[in-house]
Design brief:
Blueprint (H helix, E strand, L loop, with lengths): L1 H34 L9 E8 L4 H13 L5 E7 L5 H12 L5 E5 L5 E3 L1 H7 L3 E4 L4 E3 L4 E3 L6 E3 L2 H17 L4 H9 L3 E3 H6 L5 E2 L3 H8 L3 E2 L2 E2 L6 E5 L3 H9 L2 H20 L5 H20 L3 H19 L5 H16 L11 H34 L13 E4 L6 E6 L2 E6 L9 E8 L2 E6 L1
Parallel strand pairs: 1-2, 1-13, 2-3, 3-5, 4-6, 5-10, 16-18
Antiparallel strand pairs: 6-9, 7-8, 11-12, 14-15, 14-17, 15-16, 17-18
Helix pairs in contact: 2-3, 2-9, 3-4, 5-6, 9-11, 10-11, 10-14, 12-13, 13-14
């Protein structure tokens, strides 16, 4: 009986062990199966970001932010509408697109939008270029500000050649029509969406995002076929930081903030007991330098602004009410217009050059007018003789300029007064005013 019982126990133990082994094997198989689930089970995402307005430091920030958020997506669609912008920001955006692992689609939209100048370069750097109906691209000829007139003019041939080569390189590397692309720069050519498609500049015309995503589905980008069936469309919201950076990195805003900030410091130096002007001035200078860090600075502009401020200081110390102020205004206007580095503003929209010149002139004349007004007020105040009220001289010390017995004359606070005294005072004695009766003082020996 004991033998049978032992056999039963051994069989039960072995059976339990087999069951445990089977459970472990099943768990291992399931674990391996889940590990090697095909990638198509992952949620597909299409990211969209909207970029509008001038290309500047804020736009550059928004592009970088969008590329980071879209890292797990199938594609990033950038809805673009811009008249152009800063060449330095344009170059950084192109570099970010070229090095992006996620495919980037530049979509000129909505209907009526444009992507001129810097915007066209960004379009040409995209993996897929698309346009909405009634949109335009092109007009990429670089410009510079003529320091003598303040008007935009065609950039030197050296600059044009460099930008032409950049445009051609982008077109060839993305399989687009390099001959037409070059004309964007050399002839300021502009194309509609239909002309761009016919000439091999873009790949898609789409009326909206849904239609665009449908046409992108199945296209080959960076040796991968896009599978966007059932993809979730996610919109990347613009940030407040990007908007602020865009304002500060606008060359005319940064230049004027610097000029106004320097004037704030000057006013603070002339009014040492009132600390608000220099505080505001310092804040504006810091904001201006932050904006100018995105742009680049022309040394000639800095020197002219410094010279203009020196002229203002000379006017304040030796008022001529005209000559030095006029010299300062002219110098400051040219200094502000020349402050941004020329390489940074080659791709700015043409209308910007006019607004930059007009805003510079208006702001600087307004500052100069205020400066002249303050000088005139100071000059008038200096001409007014101090008024002494009744009782103001009580307790003041002076000197007797005649004998006082009991009346005579004294000199107090630089003025001669009639005086009387209860004691005899000799000429030259020191006196003190004990009472003031209108224009007559009662005095005693000090």
């Amino acid at each position: 009986m004991n033998v049978i019982a032992n056999l039963k126990n051994k069989y039960s133990y072995a059976n339990t062990s087999v069951k445990k082994i089977i459970v472990i094997v099943i768990l291992l198989v399931l674990s391996i199966s889940f590990t090697f689930i095909p990638s198509h089970a992952k949620e597909k995402r299409v990211y969209i970001v909207s970029i509008k307005g001038m290309i500047a430091g804020g736009t550059e920030y928004e592009f970088e932010k969008a590329l980071k958020e879209a890292r797990d997506g199938e594609v990033l669609i950038v809805s673009l509408s811009t008249p152009g912008g800063m060449a330095s920001s344009m170059d950084n955006i192109i570099e970010a697109i070229e090095n992006s692992k996620v495919p980037v689609v530049i979509y000129v939209a909505p209907a009526g939008a444009e992507a001129f100048s810097a915007g066209t370069y960004i379009l040409m750097s995209s993996d897929i270029a698309a346009m909405a109906p009634s949109t335009t691209i092109g007009a990429c000829q670089p410009r510079i500000i003529n320091p003598a007139t303040g008007f935009p003019q065609e950039a030197p041939q050296k600059e044009i050649n460099a930008y032409t080569a950049k445009m051609k390189s982008l077109a060839l590397s993305h399989g687009r029509n390099a001959t037409i692309a070059e004309k964007f720069v050399t002839e300021n050519l502009a194309l509609t969406e239909k002309e761009a498609l016919e000439n091999g500049i873009i790949e898609i015309i789409a009326s909206n995002i849904t239609q665009l995503v449908g046409k992108l589905n199945g296209m080959t980008v960076k040796n991968n076929t896009l599978n966007l069936t059932g993809a979730k469309i996610l919109k990347i919201q613009p940030s407040m930081r990007g908007k602020i950076i865009n304002y500060l990195s606008d060359p005319q805003i940064a230049s004027l903030l610097l000029t106004i900030g320097l004037f704030g410091l000057i006013i603070g130096f002339f009014t040492p007991t009132f600390h608000l002007p220099e505080t505001i001035g310092a804040i504006l200078i810091i904001l201006a330098l932050y904006g100018l860090s995105y742009i680049g600075i022309n040394a000639a502009g800095i020197l002219l602004i410094a010279l203009g401020i020196i002229f203002m200081v000379v006017e304040a110390l030796t008022p001529t009410f005209g000559f030095w102020t006029v010299a300062a205004v002219i110098t400051l206007i040219f200094g502000v217009m020349l402050l941004p580095a020329s390489s940074a503003i080659n791709e700015m929209p043409r209308s910007w050059y006019l607004s930059f010149r007009m805003v510079s002139i208006v702001i600087i004349i307004a500052i100069a007018s205020f400066f002249i007004y303050a000088l005139i007020k100071v000059a008038k105040a200096k001409k007014i003789k101090p008024r002494i009220g009744e009782g103001d001289l009580v307790g003041k010390k002076g000197v007797a300029i005649t004998d006082i017995k009991p009346e005579g004359q004294v000199k107090v606070s630089g003025e001669i007064w009639k005086a009387e005294s209860d004691e005899e005072i000799r000429r030259g004695d020191k006196i003190m005013v004990s009472e003031q009766k209108r224009l007559k003082l009662k005095v005693r020996k000090a």
